[in-house]
Amino acid sequence: MKFVDEFRDRTIAERIIKKIERFDSLKVNLMEVCGTHTMVIFKQGLKGMLPKNVNLLSGPGCPVCVTSQEDIDKAIELARDRRMIITTFGDMVRVPGTNSSLEKEKANGADVRIIYSPSEALRIARENPDKKVVFLAIGFETTSPLIAASVMDAQKEKIDNFFIFSTHKLIPPAMEALSKSKELNIEGFICPGHVSVTIGSDAYRFIAQKYNVPCVIGGFEALDVLQSIYMLLRQIKENRAEVEIEYFRAVHPQGNIIAQQLISEVFEVTDVRWRGLGIIPRSGLRLRKKFYDYDAEREFQPKVKKGKENPDCACGQVLRGVKKPTQCKLYKRICTPENPYGPCMVSSEGTCAAYYKYG
What we know:
The protein has a domain of about 150 residues: 3-Layer(aba) Sandwich (Rossmann fold), CATH 3.40.50. It starts with 9 loop residues before the first helix and ends with a helix. Helix 1 runs parallel beside helix 12, helix 2 packs parallel to helix 17 and helix 8 packs across helix 13. The strands form three sheets. The chain has a five-stranded parallel sheet. Strands 4-3-5-6 form a four-stranded parallel sheet, sandwiched between helices. Strands 10-11 form a two-stranded antiparallel sheet. Strand 10 and strand 11 form a beta hairpin. It is built from 17 helices and eleven strands. The chain is an alpha/beta fold.
């Protein structure tokens, strides 16, 4: 099948690995900033194929994982209001808050529904005019255009019982925070393919220019990831720091202009808290003033105490790349996909889940 089998060719993979092995004089830390990349790396056993001088670090590329404890607690507080129908993507339901989870609240009678697109939440609002329908808007630049479109549709149709609780995050500011961090010496980024389809390669240019860190936008097959690593090593060897596109079959330098316009029309940039990274300036999205009527947090003002994370859970350090899941006290001992203590074990894109399933 075109664009699938040709990116899973063992012979080609072996050729790329041989090219990577030629850079044995370099000892480098490379970070993939995408949960899907993390899963591909572990599922395909790529770490075991790479020479020891290439150290792959998993970054904050899981939107569920980086949602702050405070935001999780606010979503739980909203679910406790029986006037509400809470709609969300599947992984969010099981993420532990300080004292509960949406899954537990659902078991206690809360109306929590798993959906697969924002349009489903809008449909539920149409069908339940006597209820307040809140969509937990989780995601990076990949999902925000769809959610922006749903808000515009709600306004156009004059649907007054539809709200979103925005916890949207923007990837480039998080990469900047990691580039400035003294905890790690990141010498190259494998940039997320899905996000880059929306924002393009130009959005990362300041990372390369300001911090001298090479970037390569990679696709999601094994050969994509291996080729991205080779391209990063070549930049490092040649003392270059540029933004290159390996995933050229889907990503263009300017990205998807229509999707960017949708985001810009509905949302404005704001400072937000990331789990493990703290508050990162201009790294989140909130509704613009003309869409305030659809802002669940502004409308219902859920009151919670400061989110308290489990002190033994290392999710924050895993998301920063300073710890591996195996270095967490809870990993596999009491924290498993069936009994998760942190979001990195809950999410299908979480690093701990990848380690557990494929490591």
